[in-house]
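Support request from a user on the community tier.

User writes: "When I paste my structure tokens into the form, the page sometimes reloads and wipes my input. The last time it worked, I copied everything first. Here is what I submitted, just in case something in the input itself triggers the reload:"
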């Protein structure tokens, strides 16, 4: 009998874009071989292999179904995952018994079939099949099934990466990202970390009034040392729920990176933090593009002018094409209402982008300037400022979470507190 881990789906969701709040953890570096019977399934698996969450997996597709798989593994080792398409019942069970005789221990099997029957499902589980997916399947069904094999229910949840980037320099993307992270930590009670990726000119340390001796540069320039303990030593504690991976903000070296320079840092952060907010600098390089495409959710910050409109449109088009199985990026307008400055109205901006902004944050240099100079968040400067609610709206949209309800105090609360004190 095939000895695989069990992880199955009783019901299959629609083979369309995943629900807004669905979070599928990326698969590790594994080998996947699919044996399909129909060109439709082969096309879906091929499209799934191009999804960002299977970016590290090595996928190979062959036609021929069960018979081709059995023949292939008579003289070759089996991969980490085998995906089999079968439209029969008896042939499927018989084929799985034959496959077990040539299968290496530890290989996991996903079956794609047309029969929706609980008795068949039980037989597949008994034979050790990891997942059974009803056809017809879409790319996101294949992505979900393969990724879930490596995300055990009892394991710690893999963190959600949120990337914040400005459509143009000077639009306040860093300020927005830092205040949104503050809202995620304070109002949504999620443990979060801000990773300042602008190593030369990053402002997260200033905004949070932190000056740590180490930060993200130590991890990027020492990839062999990156693990959970090493990253923990680099984090600077801002609040009970918020930490900072600060940029050095020095010019004593040139920060030229390869495309995958931050991969080890991001993977380690995912394993330790529920929410990671990337403050991405306004530059276009291999690693910034990779960070954006690889993020779970994206926020573009734009000012209401023509250059920002063009750049936002270009970012939207690229990200939607590169992430067909993810929801589109979000965007917000910032610095709206600068005196005597001609602006593009929010409605016209939305018409060109074909998407509404999450919020439009007004231009208020007094409070934002004071917060920046004091190393504070807007919520610390003015607890009732209207922009605080906007930051919370963005945080909720990006994380899919609602505000944590605060316990209501009763008339007896003061007395109870006094008794506890005694």
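"...and here is what came back when it finally went through:"
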């Amino acid at each position: 009998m095939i000895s695989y881990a069990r992880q199955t789906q009783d019901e299959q969701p629609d083979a369309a874009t995943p629900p807004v709040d669905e979070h599928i953890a990326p698969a590790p570096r594994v080998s996947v071989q699919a044996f399909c019977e129909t060109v439709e399934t082969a096309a879906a698996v091929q499209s799934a292999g191009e999804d960002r969450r299977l970016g590290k997996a090595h996928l190979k597709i062959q036609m021929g179904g069960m018979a081709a798989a059995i023949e292939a593994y008579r003289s070759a080792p089996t991969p980490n995952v085998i995906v089999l398409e079968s439209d029969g019942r008896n042939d499927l069970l018989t084929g799985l018994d034959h496959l077990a005789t040539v299968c290496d221990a530890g290989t996991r099997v996903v079956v794609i079939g047309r029969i929706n029957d609980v008795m068949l499902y039980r037989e597949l589980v008994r034979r050790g099949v990891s997942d059974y997916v009803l056809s017809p399947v879409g790319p996101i069904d294949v992505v979900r099934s393969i990724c879930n094999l490596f995300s055990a229910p009892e394991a710690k949840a893999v963190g959600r990466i949120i990337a914040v980037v400005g459509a143009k320099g000077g639009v306040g993307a860093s300020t927005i990202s830092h205040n949104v992270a503050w809202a995620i930590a304070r109002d949504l009670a999620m443990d979060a970390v801000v990773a300042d990726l602008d190593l030369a000119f990053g402002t997260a340390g200033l905004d949070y009034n932190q000056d740590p001796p180490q930060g993200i540069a130590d991890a990027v320039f020492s990839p062999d040392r990156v693990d959970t303990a090493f990253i923990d030593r680099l984090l600077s504690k801002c609040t009970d729920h918020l930490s900072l991976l600060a940029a050095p903000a020095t010019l004593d070296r040139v920060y030229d990176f390869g495309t995958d320079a931050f991969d080890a840092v991001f993977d380690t952060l995912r394993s330790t933090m529920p929410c990671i907010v990337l403050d991405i600098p306004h530059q276009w390089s291999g690693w910034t593009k990779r960070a954006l495409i690889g993020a779970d959710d994206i926020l573009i910050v734009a000012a209401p002018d023509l250059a920002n409109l063009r750049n936002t449109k270009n970012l939207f088009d690229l990200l939607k094409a590169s992430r067909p199985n993810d929801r589109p990026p979000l965007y917000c307008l910032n610095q709206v209402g600068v005196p005597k400055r001609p602006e593009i109205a929010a409605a016209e901006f939305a018409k060109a982008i074909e998407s509404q902004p999450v919020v439009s944050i007004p231009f208020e240099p007094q409070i934002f300037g004071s917060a920046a100079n004091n190393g504070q968040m807007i919520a610390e400067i003015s607890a009732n400022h209207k922009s605080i609610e906007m930051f919370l709206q963005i945080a909720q949209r990006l994380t899919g979470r609602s505000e944590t309800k605060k316990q209501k105090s009763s008339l007896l609360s003061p007395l109870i507190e006094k008794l506890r004190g005694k």
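Agent notes: The reload is a front-end session timeout and is unrelated to the input. The chain is about 40% helix and 15% strand. The two ends are 65 Å apart (CA to CA). Escalated to web team.
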